[in-house]
Amino acid sequence: MSAPALAEQLHLCLCHGCGQACDLRQGQHQCDRCGAPLHRRKANPIARGWAFLFAALIFYVPANALPVMRTEMLGQGSDSTIVGGVLEFWEAGAWDIALIIFIASIGVPGIKFVSLGLLLFTAQRRSQWARRQRSQLFRFVELIGYWSMLDVMVVALVAALVQLRGLGTIEPRPGILFFGLVVVLTMLSAMSFDPRLIWDDHPHDGEHHDGAGD
Question: Where, by residue number, does the polypeptide cross the bilayer (predicted)?
Fold first, then answer.
């Protein structure tokens, strides 16, 4: 049984804007539905992915070093970093709140950093190792990306929980702004990566700007 024809052989291109399959045999350079430029592959997927990922790692340093919230309990107030906030709530017996902060602000970003770094590194080296598993890993990164705003909203959520319990008050601090940048940059890194690079058996010009008319 012969293998099915590839989209490139059929001169088809998937619009990155709306997902419509476009026929390139008519010299079409823009999607006729949404007007987005057509590219057979995402432009510079590895270079852009690394750039956004490194930028996110840089901003993750002040996001953890600077205070993200000010907690006032029993008349005493203090500024807390992410790790400091987790420890404070844990020691105060609010282990559920501490778990929310740890998962949303430390666990999820750490998973995204490691996963995106692995995907970019193996794709850059054109590795044939665990292709199916890496494809599943990319889908997992996309899945948790839908919940990335939880990292930014966690302070507001925790503030509401704390005030509801009457434990004290919480106010945001500058570190949460850097954390918001980390969330946006990791999402851009995931969006820049082209999962088809995982299955390429030969050097592909997907690392260059491949337009519909090329």
Answer: 50-69, 97-122, 143-164, 176-193
